[in-house]
Q: What sequence folds into this?
């Protein structure tokens, strides 16, 4: 069994007090550090971005799909939008479209996504052909 001295207790108490002060400062400023859990509900914003981006990719390729992943509750910058296609050729065609990423960034701004995270949000592309061939059909393995 471990015993703690009075000094250990004071050090722990002081560390807790410093943490509490920092949390209060961050909350007052309305910003969360990138490493802190993010408490704003981003689901409605992400759904709006997904809808806009799905429309954009389907204008280019009617059979395309789109979904998002990422630990946005930890950090909003961890959002990844995945445009999906049936073939590698279709995927490569979408990935070569230089207008899609700027459109995603503009959409993120328009819906009010946290501004400090927008530049690090990713738009990736993957095909069912590659998932079947290289990952045994597992999208989980393909995107991790």
A:
């Amino acid at each position: 069994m471990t015993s703690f001295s009075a000094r250990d207790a004071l050090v722990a108490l002081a560390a807790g007090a410093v943490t509490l002060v920092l949390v209060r400062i961050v909350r007052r400023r309305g910003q969360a550090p990138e490493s802190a859990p993010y408490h704003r509900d981003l689901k409605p914003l992400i759904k709006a971005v997904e809808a806009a981006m799905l429309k954009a990719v389907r204008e280019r390729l009617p059979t395309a799909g789109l979904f998002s992943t990422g630990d946005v509750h930890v950090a909003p910058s961890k959002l990844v939008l995945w445009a999906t296609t049936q073939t590698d050729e279709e995927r490569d065609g979408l990935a070569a479209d230089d207008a899609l990423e700027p459109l995603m960034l503009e959409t993120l701004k328009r819906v009010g996504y946290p501004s400090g995270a927008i530049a690090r949000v990713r738009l990736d592309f993957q095909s069912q052909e590659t998932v079947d061939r290289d990952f045994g059909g597992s999208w989980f393995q393909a995107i991790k």
In short: The mean pLDDT is 85. The longest helix spans residues 6-29.
